[in-house]
Amino acid sequence: MRLYSLSVLYKGDPKVHLLKAAYDVSTFSFFQRSSVQEFMTFTSQLITERSALGSRASVKEQEYLCHVYVRSDGLAGVVIADNEYPQRVCFTLLDKVLDEFSRQVSKMDWPSGSPATISYSALDGYLSKYQVQTP
Questions:
Q1: Is 112 strand, coil or helix?
Q2: What pLDDT does 133 receive?
Q3: pLDDT above 70: residue 7
Q4: pLDDT in tens, 17-35
Q5: How many domains does the structure of the chain reveal?
Q6: Does the chain have fewer CB atoms within 10 Å around its N or its C terminus?
Q7: Residue 79: pLDDT above 60?
Q8: Sheet holding 75-82, edge to edge
Q9: Could you tell me the residue range of the domain that residue 108 belongs to?
Q10: Which one-letter DSSP state was computed for residue 18?
């Protein structure tokens, strides 16, 4: 059971953009890592774009499950995990991250923000904390 990506996005008008993301691509070969990360970013944006405000969904993409939660204020979170990772845990994580993000990052910064301009450093910690360690 693995988590590969945790992203916070803003579903604005007309398009979705990434605010902050954390990735764990350590299980992929060195040469695959950048393209896997690009795939995860693209997939996260696409799923958020296709999801309605105030909705939660789990979408299967190749051998991954993408869990998306779009809040009614446009703030969205996406977790990309393997098929075995519990769905309930993913949505609990998304709730926690989006609540904390919206408290720490001003709503005024969401429409124009980008990973370079948003200061929110907790994603990497959450990604490793929620990683299931296999014995």
A1: coil
A2: 60
A3: yes
A4: 999 999 999 999 999 999 9
A5: 1
A6: C
A7: yes
A8: 16-23, 3-11, 75-82, 64-70, 55-61
A9: 3-130
A10: E
On whether residue 103 sits in a domain, the answer given is yes
Residue with tokens 């691509």: 25
Q: How far apart are the first and last CA of the chain?
A: 11
The tokens for 99 are 């609540």
Task: Report yes or no on 105 lying in a domain.
Answer: yes
Note the pLDDT of residue 37: 96
pLDDT at 61: 83
Instruction: List Cβ neighbours of 116 (8 Å cut-off, separation of 6 or more).
Output: none
What tens digit of pLDDT does each residue of 112-131 get?
999 999 999 999 999 999 99
- Helix 87-104 crosses helix 122-129 at what angle (to 10 degrees)? 160
Q: Are 69 and 77 in contact (CB under 8 A)?
A: yes
CA distance 77 to 16: 11
Distance separating alpha carbons of residues 15 and 29, to the nearest angstrom: 32
- Give the CATH number, domain containing residue 121: 3.30.450.50
Residue 77 lies in a domain: yes
16/113 Cα distance (integer angstroms):
11
Q: Within 10 Å of residue 104's Cβ, how many Cβ atoms?
A: 12
